[in-house]
Specification:
By secondary structure, this protein is mainly beta. The protein has one domain. It has 2 helices and 12 strands, in the order αββββββββββαββ. Strands 1, 2, 3, 4, 5, 6, 7, 8, 9, 10, 11 and 12 form a 12-stranded antiparallel sheet that branches. The longest helix has 11 residues.
């Protein structure tokens, strides 16, 4: 379960590989769109939900695919241009997509271990000036969970190379990271897992235990 939470946050997380950059209309006040492919971005805020299908339970079941649907926003984001690049202000970042664990046994306890993930997350960046490509596609590869000092479930994500688009840094987005936690405690999560319907959804927030920005796109 912790693992899936990780994915979720992760997602929101961060992370930013992107879709191909294409020319677009000029931004307001005559400023042309900015190619931010090699820029980086950092967000201190994150608010998201992760929905599990099938629901996670205490005993789980036969190993098969676990799909985690993620939807949320990253906030308080700052963009860092490349040397000589045009400054960009990030006003909004929306995250959505589905991540899959093909060998999940659908147990909450399994979320505490590193898991291999496929699928992708789409991050839609709203900036001023506008970007030549504002949609990023991130590809989480591994989710690792833990327990924070406050008793909440923490998570981190590893990413594969970006497809194309903004905020890839100098290594195609593979240095992107997330640092978040669930809004509820581990004990509360386990109680829900043991219920009749299991754990269907979890909410994610910034990591109250510190450790850096909630989302780093680079």
């Amino acid at each position: 379960m912790i693992r899936k939470m990780l994915i979720l946050a992760a997602a929101v997380a961060i992370p930013v590989s992107v879709v191909g950059a294409t020319a677009g209309p000029a931004s307001a006040k005559g400023t042309p769109p900015v190619n931010a492919t090699n820029y980086t971005a950092s967000c201190t805020g994150i608010k998201a939900t992760a929905s599990f299908s099938p629901a996670l339970t205490t005993n789980g079941g036969t190993a098969s695919n676990e799909a985690t649907k993620i939807k949320g926003t990253a906030t308080n984001c700052t963009a860092t241009p490349t040397s000589g690049g045009t400054p960009v202000t990030i006003t909004n970042a929306k995250i959505s997509g589905t991540i899959n664990d093909a060998t999940s046994t659908h147990t909450c306890s399994g979320l505490a271990s590193p898991t291999t993930e496929t699928g992708s997350l789409k991050i839609t960046w709203k900036t001023s000036p506008k970007l030549t490509s504002s949609v990023a596609v991130v590809n989480p590869t591994t989710v690792t969970g833990g327990i924070g000092a406050d008793g909440h479930a923490t998570f981190s994500l590893s990413f594969g190379p970006a497809t194309s688009g903004p905020f890839q840094g100098t290594d195609n987005g593979t240095s992107s990271s997330t640092n978040a936690e669930t809004t509820t405690t581990i004990s509360s999560i386990l109680t829900t897992c043991g219920g009749k319907s299991g754990l269907k959804k979890i909410s994610i927030q910034p990591n109250a235990n510190g450790g850096g920005p909630a989302v780093v796109a680079s």
